[in-house]
Amino acid sequence: MTNEIITSVQNPLVKRLHQLLSRKGREEQQRFLVEGAHLVEEALKSGAEVVTVIYDQQRDMDPACQRALANHPEAVQVIAAPETVLAKLSETKSPQGIVAEVKKTAADWAKWVDQKREEQGSLLLLFLDEIQDPGNLGTILRTAEAAAIDGVVLGSGSVDIYNGKVVRATMGALFRIPVFTQSLVDTADEWKAKGGRVLISSLEQNSVSYDEADYAGLTALVIGNEGRGVSKEMFAKADQFVHIPLYGGAESLNAAVAAGIFVYEAQRKRR
Amino acid sequence: MTNEIITSVQNPLVKRLHQLLSRKGREEQQRFLVEGAHLVEEALKSGAEVVTVIYDQQRDMDPACQRALANHPEAVQVIAAPETVLAKLSETKSPQGIVAEVKKTAADWAKWVDQKREEQGSLLLLFLDEIQDPGNLGTILRTAEAAAIDGVVLGSGSVDIYNGKVVRATMGALFRIPVFTQSLVDTADEWKAKGGRVLISSLEQNSVSYDEADYAGLTALVIGNEGRGVSKEMFAKADQFVHIPLYGGAESLNAAVAAGIFVYEAQRKRR
Fold first, then answer.
1. Domain-wise residue ranges, chain B
2. B83 to chain A, minimum CA–CA distance in Å?
3. CATH assignment of B2-103, among 3.30.1490.20, 2.170.130.20, 3.40.50.720, 3.30.1330.30
4. Tell me: the pLDDT tens digits for B126-137?
C-alpha cells in the first residue's frame, strides 16, 4: 500500500481514469471505476483486482475501506487528491470522496460451467437478452445474488455491465456473482450441448405459468429486452416458454421485477 | 374539443402549467402533468379529469390520442404550440411532443374499502411506507396493477405519486389502480378496526418466509423505505412479519423487486 498525492485534474493518471467513465475507455483499458466507500470496500474484499484507490484528501478515508485495503493481498496504489479530482472521476451529483480503478475479469464460461456442474450437480443460470436500462441490469444482478443464482450470461448488445449506474445498482453483487458477457445464441447452443434446458420468458400462447414450470437440473432462464422481449433467434433455442400472468390491465412487468419473480419461484421449487 | 394556439413560453397558461413540474405547484393547483402519447392516451381513456392537452404544432397529434380525445366525455382544451413550449413543460431530455394537464383525484379510503369489501368479500392491499425513489414507486404501481392488487396506500413522507418520473414508471397504472396518499399508521388502525390483517415485510427474527405467510381475506402488505425498511410505528401494527429469504450474499432486495415477489406469491396463494 503506497501513498501518493495528486493535485491537478491535468495529471495523466486522472486523465486516463476519466476515460473509464465511457464504454470506449473501459473497453480499451479493460478496467472500470467504482465509486463510493461501500462499493470500493466490496471490490477490495471480493478479491477483484483493484489497481488504484483515490480518496478526497479533505475527508478521512472510510475505516472499512482502510481495513479492506490493509487486508488486500495485492499492492494497491493509494492516492490522496483534492475534491476537483474526485469530481472529475465521478458520474454522480455529489461525488462520494472515494473511487477505485478495478481490472475487468474474463473467465471462460464453458470451463466455469463444467467445474460448477461437477461441484453441485445442478445449475440455475440467468441469460439476459439485450437488457438496455442500467438500473434494471444492476437490480437483476442484485436479485440474482440474493436468490443465489449460480451465474449470469449477459448477451452482446446489452448495456455495459461496467457502466457506473449498473455497478451502483448491483450494490456490490457484481463482485460476488459470476457474470459473462458473450453471444447469447452461441451460449444457448453450448448449454444445450451440455444437457442444459432453456426456459424463455414470453407471453407466447404455448407458454406455461411461472409457477408451473420445471426449473430442475441444468436450467437457464432467459429474460428479454425491456421493449421487445426475447429475440427471435433465442426463441429457436427454447425448451419451454414461461410467463408471469398479468391479472390486471398492465401490458407487461418491469424486466427486473419479472426476473425477481422468476428466480425466486425457481429457487422455491429447487429447494 | 376546442382548438387554440399558443406561441410563447411567456403565455400565462404555460407559466401556470410549468409550475406543475414541482411538488409545490402540484399541491397548490391540485393538478399534475403527464407527458408522451401513450400516457396522455391512458389518462384520457381512464376517465381521469383531463383539463388541457398541448401538442407540438410541428408534429401530427398521435392518432390514438386523437381517438381518445374524441371519445372523452368532458370538454378538453386542446392547444397547438411550438416546440419551445413543449420543452418548457417537459422533464425529459427529448420532449415527446404532447403533454396533458390532469386533475388529481381524492377518494375516501374508508368508504372505498367498505364498498370493495361488499363487492368482493376479500381485499389485498399494498401499504407503502415512505418509498423515496420515483422509479421504485412507479414500478411498484405497475406491478400492483399487473398482479391485480385491489389498491395502494402511499404513506405520508413518500415521494409524490404525481412526480413525473413516478407517473412515467407506472406505464399508466396510476390511472387504473386506486392509490390513496395518507397517514399509514392511521390507515393501519382503521384497517384493523375493519377486521383487516397487517403483514409487514421485514427480516425480523420472528418473520415467516413469504411463501409460508397467510394472505387470505382482508390482507394489507407493508413495504418499507429503501434504506431503513418499515418504520417502528408501523411495526406496532403487525399481525405477522414476512420476509423474502436472502440465499446469497446480498444484504437486501430492491424495494420494487421485493414488492413484486410478495404480491405475486400472495395472488398465487389467493387464486
1. 2-103, 109-270
2. 27
3. 3.30.1330.30
4. 999 999 999 999
Q: Which residues in A lie closer than 8 A to residue B268 (C-beta atoms)?
A: 211
Chain A contact present for B46, CB below 8 A: no
Can you name the CATH fold of B109-270? Alpha/beta knot (3.40.1280)
Pinpoint the alpha helices (H) of chain B.
12-18, 23-29, 37-46, 63-71, 83-88, 109-120, 134-146, 164-170, 184-193, 232-235, 255-270
Residues of A in contact with B134 (CB under 8 A): none
Where b means 16+ CB within 10 Å and e means fewer, A204-239 reads eeebeebbebebeebbbbbbbbeeebbbeebbebbe
Distance from CA of A13 to the nearest CA of B (A): 32
**Alpha carbon A219 to chain centroid distance?**
19
pLDDT at A1 over 60: no
What are the pLDDT digits (tens) for B9-56? 999 999 999 999 999 999 999 999 999 999 999 999 998 999 999 999
B86 touches chain A (CB under 8 A): no
CA distance B60 to A108: 52
Let me know the angle formed at the C-alpha of A146 by A144 and A151, rounded to the nearest 5 degrees. 35
| Partner residue facing A143 (CB), from B249, B257, B268 | B257
Q: What is the ipTM of this complex?
A: 0.94
What distance in Å separates the CA atoms of residue A193 and residue B204, rounded to the nearest whole number?
44
> In which band, very low, low, confident or very high, does the pLDDT at A2 lie, cut at 50, 70 and 90?
low
> Is B109-270 the same fold as B2-103?
no
* C-beta neighbour count of A84 within 10 angstroms: 13
- Contact of B68 with B44, CB cutoff 8 Å: yes
Question: Which three cell numbers, joined as nine digits, stand for A149?
Answer: 443464482
The Cα A105–Cα A101 span in angstroms is: 13
**Partners of residue B267 in chain A, C-beta under 8 Å:** 247
State the nearest Cα–Cα gap between A143 and chain B, in angstroms. Answer: 6
Minimal CA separation from B111 to chain A, in Å: 22
> B270 at the A interface (CB within 8 A)?
no
Place of cell 409550475: B19
Min Cα separation B141/chain A (Å): 10
| Mean pLDDT score, B167-181 | 95
Q: Is residue A208 within 8 angstroms of chain B, CB to CB?
A: no
Say which of B211, B256, B268 has its CB closest to residue A257. Answer: B256
Phi, psi of B133 (to 5 degrees): -90, 125
Are A177 and B248 an interchain contact pair (Cβ–Cβ within 8 Å)? yes
Cβ contact B6:B79 at 8 Å: yes
Residues of chain A positioned with their CB less than 8 A from the CB of B146: 244, 246-248, 250, 252-253
> For residue B246, what is the nearest residue in chain A, using CA coordinates?
A146
Amino acid, res. A235: F
